[in-house]
Specification:
With 205 residues, this protein is an alpha+beta fold. The chain is built from five helices and seven strands, in the order H-H-E-H-E-E-H-E-E-H-E-E. The two termini are 27 Å apart.
């Protein structure tokens, strides 16, 4: 029992370490976005970006282990609206009507890095033709979260496609060590027509 508890604590420390790496990665990308708008002299958009960035930063630094689905949705909305100012793509965040977003909790910023990759490596070059669709649904007792973009795709065997994706895979492996009664199952499909990331939280509901 003591050994299992020690393993769990070690996994939590490793998880905190990965989050500590993810947060600067996210913040650096956001600051680059603000700089880009300022360099183009888009002052109004830069101010809008900064406003959303401030709220996102507060949430990122809050460091809660679990947040509600509605909070996660707000974070993703803020982030995608920021990036819309730079790239002009469209996006949707859809959810099943019977999902209680306020009372279902998930690990904080679970989808953030996947959405960042969809923007940076997926649709950043497509301008207004770019599209991202995020879906939150339940399948019996499982919670299924998907991020789909219509970018040019990437080689799923090549793990050099962004620090965020690599860190997120490590984070999911650690979550599987902590939440023994559940499984976090990551699926990645990518073709020249786009990429689909699916994350299934088994027996979560």
């Amino acid at each position: 029992m003591a050994e299992k508890e020690q393993q769990k604590n070690t996994a939590k420390l490793q998880l905190s370490s990965i989050r500590a790496q993810l947060n600067p990665h996210f913040l650096f990308n956001a600051l680059a976005g603000i700089q880009n708008l300022m360099n183009k002299n888009e002052i109004d958009n830069a101010n809008k970006y900064l406003s959303k960035f401030a709220r996102l930063t507060r949430n990122v630094l809050d460091d809660k282990e679990l947040i509600s689905l509605s909070q996660e949705k707000t974070l993703l909305d803020d982030y995608l609206q920021m990036e819309q100012l730079r790239f002009g793509f469209t996006y949707e965040i859809n959810h099943a009507e019977n999902l209680d977003l306020d009372n279902i909790e998930i690990p904080s910023m679970l989808l953030q890095s996947f959405v960042e990759n969809a923007v940076k490596h997926g649709i950043s070059q497509k301008a207004t033709d770019g599209r991202i669709i995020i879906t939150l649904i339940n399948q019996t007792n499982d919670l299924v979260l998907t991020v789909v973009d219509n970018g040019n795709g990437f080689n799923t065997e090549n793990r050099q496609n962004g620090l965020g994706l690599t860190l997120s895979e490590g984070r999911i492996a650690l979550l599987n060590n902590i939440y023994k009664e559940n499984r976090f199952i990551l699926g990645i499909q990518s073709t020249t027509n786009g990429t689909k990331i699916s994350l299934t939280l088994t027996d979560w509901l």
